[in-house]
Each structure stands twice: as C-alpha cells, then as structure tokens.
Amino acid sequence: MHDPYEDNQPGPESLGRSARLVVPSDDNDLPVVAKSVVCTTAGNISVVPIGNADYTPVPFVDVPAGYLVPFQVRRVMATGTTATAWTLED
C-alpha cells in the first residue's frame, strides 16, 4: 500500500493515523494521550483533558455517533460514559 503521508510529521491538528477502542475507567489514564476521541455510538461521554491537572472531567450529554471531543484526552471516565469511543492517535 502506498502511503503518501508517511513522511509527514503528525501534529495535534492532523488527523489520527491509528486508533484503539477506549475502555472507560475512573482510575486509569489512557495508555497514550489521544489527540481526541470519537464516539462511534450515540450517548454520553465524560473525558479528562490532558491539561486538567486536577482530573476534573468534562461531560458531554446526548452526543451523536461520529461526535469528536474537542480536547486532547488523558482519560475517559466510566462514570457518565455510555457511548462507545475510539482514540485518535499519532
């Protein structure tokens, strides 16, 4: 497969090049800080942005499938999350 973007340096504003299914947790950060997370099912999602040193979550309620959280994310909380989410990485 030819990848015309393989030499591009990914930045926070670029699209993700990999993803992983999020396992929400009230106690553990994601294995890698995500550029964002995308909800692949409708529902609620509660995230802790990378800059929230006090781990204060930001809730999003009744988001549609395809919703892209507008933060770089360190944790997806189990409490308050009903949507299925995937990370955007790299």
Short précis:
The protein is mainly β. The protein has strands at 36-39, 43-49, 58-63, 73-76, 85-88. Strands 3-2-4 form a 3-stranded antiparallel sheet, with no helix packed on it.
Q: What does the model show?
A:
This protein is mostly beta strands. It has one domain. It has no helices and five strands. The strands form two sheets. The chain has a three-stranded antiparallel beta sheet, with no helix packed on it. It is globular. The mean pLDDT is 93.
Question: How far apart, in Å, are the first and last alpha carbons?
Answer: 19 Å
Biggest sheet strand line-up: 3-2-4
Low-confidence stretches: none
- The radius of gyration is 13 Å
Strand content: 25-35%
H/E element sequence? EEEEE
Q: How many β-strand stretches? A: 5
Q: What quaternary form is this?
A: single chain
Helix- and strand-based class? Answer: mainly beta
Mean pLDDT across residues: 93
Helix content: under 10%
Sheet with the most strands, sense and barrel status: 3 strands, antiparallel
Count of separate structural domains: 1
Shape: globular
Count of DSSP helices?
Answer: 0
Structural topology:
Elements lengths: L35 E4 L3 E7 L8 E6 L9 E4 L8 E4 L2
Antiparallel strand pairs: 1-5, 2-3, 2-4
Q: What brief labels describe this structure?
A:
single chain, mainly beta, two-stranded antiparallel sheet, globular
